[in-house]
Specification:
Elements: E1 8-13, H1 16-27, E2 30-32, E3 41-46, E4 49-55, E5 74-78, H2 82-91, E6 97-99, E7 107-112, E8 118-123
Parallel strand pairs: 1-4, 5-8
Antiparallel strand pairs: 2-3, 3-4, 6-7, 7-8
Length: about 130
């Protein structure tokens, strides 16, 4: 068996329009067409990977907090310019947890979406 990568990450959200504003307008992910499922949601393309937002009130994966904690479950997106990303988040008053120097060897910036889902945005100068 040969794996070619991660196709998508799915996140539970509670307010689709609020989440679409965050991921599309604030973060800047490209929204793509989504099939007409029985549940509400939105899909975003991030290079070779997709992010799927799903409104699912019975979901059990919401963290129940918007506190930023880098040890909690999250997914990571590699960026080419950490400073530009930080400036974009500051312009939208998004809270961040930054770790410019750590054991991983790359700059990490953690943000939470309106439902508390954690996303790490990281940069490695040699990639």
């Amino acid at each position: 068996m040969d794996y070619t990568g991660i196709h998508h990450v799915s996140l539970i959200v509670t307010d689709l329009e609020r989440s679409k504003h965050f991921y599309g307008k604030i973060i800047g992910f490209e929204e793509i067409e989504r099939p007409n499922f029985d549940t509400l949601g939105a899909w975003y393309q991030i290079r070779n990977t997709q992010l799927h937002l799903i409104v699912y009130n019975e979901g059990k994966t919401l963290r129940g907090t918007v506190e930023l904690d880098s040890s909690d479950g999250h997914f990571a997106v590699r960026v080419t310019d950490t400073e530009a990303f930080i400036k974009r988040m500051e312009a939208h008053n998004v809270s961040m947890l930054t770790t410019p120097s750590n054991a991983a060897g790359w700059y990490q910036v953690y943000v939470g979406d309106p439902d508390g889902n954690l996303i790490e945005f990281n940069y490695h100068p040699e990639e």
